[in-house]
Write a structure and sequence with these properties.
Layout (H helix, E strand, L loop, with lengths): L6 H7 L3 E3 L5 E3 L26 E7 L2 E3 L3 E10 L19 E7 L5 E8 L5 E7 L7 E11 L2 E12 L5
Parallel strand pairs: 4-10
Antiparallel strand pairs: 1-2, 3-5, 5-8, 6-7, 6-9, 9-10
Amino acid sequence: MISLPATYSEIQYNGNQILQGDGTAIQKQTPYPNHALAIGKIDAISKNASPAKITLVVKYSDHVRIAYPLVINAKVFYANQDPTGNFDQYYGFISNAKITVQILNPNGILVQSFTGVTDNHGYYYQTFRIPDNSRLGTYSILISAQVGDSVDSKKLALFIQNHRQY
């Protein structure tokens, strides 16, 4: 039969002690005495990552006559999902992207502005009737899309022509 020191029974009940070779018990030391040890699942890691790049793709008529409608169609995609700028692509689009449209006359004066968001398919649609008193010439359409901190914008030329005379 082996006899054990009396401290052995203490160690059985107290996991904070270590039995030394001479039969004495000492307090167990943790490697980081002032830090709590947490074991568990990491839910998320926050880091300074750049925002996902977006691509704004626009279809419109670049020649419009006075008293006729200008139609603007825009779609917003993740840039890595639509690298070629394919308007008709059916995946990689972004819903709820903020769209801003500004129409400037040939002198750079704001004529009309619109804001909105893309639908569930990343699509934005806007019409604007060219007023009867509009100046002829080259207008600018400034259109931008924003998703969080990501922005893409385009500057498009619009040629306003006389209305048809019969």
